[in-house]
């Protein structure tokens, strides 16, 4: 039996930043839209404001999520959007998960 060389398993395509369940869920919610309001993402992912804020800060620091603040009327609002790098990283992460689930140990 031939074993794959180092670094060929699809798990090497996983991104440690977005692999955490809440961050992965945030990325998935944002992947479906150009941008989303903070409250919508919070409710979709089913977390508190503080939990979402911490996870978004991590994703923003990694360059995966852009945060925009503004107003709707007199009410402050925060919108979240995936950056181009965030979209590409999320797509690659999902490809790696599919390869692992499908047993594609050669990575492609």
UniProtKB/TrEMBL annotation:
This protein's name: Transcriptional regulator
Winged helix DNA-binding domain ranges (all copies): 22-100
Originating organism: Streptomyces kasugaensis
InterPro entries tied to this protein: WH-like_DNA-bd_sf, WH_DNA-bd_dom, WH_DNA-bd_sf
Domain of life: Bacteria
PANTHER family found in the cross-reference section: BSL7504 PROTEIN
UniProt cross-references to Pfam families, sorted A to Z: HTH_34
């Amino acid at each position: 039996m031939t074993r794959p060389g180092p670094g060929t398993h699809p798990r090497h395509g996983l991104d440690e930043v977005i692999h955490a369940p809440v961050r992965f869920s945030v990325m998935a919610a944002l992947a479906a839209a150009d941008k989303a309001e903070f409250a919508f993402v919070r409710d979709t992912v089913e977390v508190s404001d503080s939990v979402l804020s911490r996870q978004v800060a991590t994703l923003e620091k990694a360059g995966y999520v852009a945060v925009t603040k503004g107003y709707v009327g007199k009410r402050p609002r925060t919108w979240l959007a995936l950056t181009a790098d965030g979209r590409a990283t999320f797509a690659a992460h999902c490809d790696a998960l599919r390869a692992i689930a499908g047993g594609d140990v050669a990575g492609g």
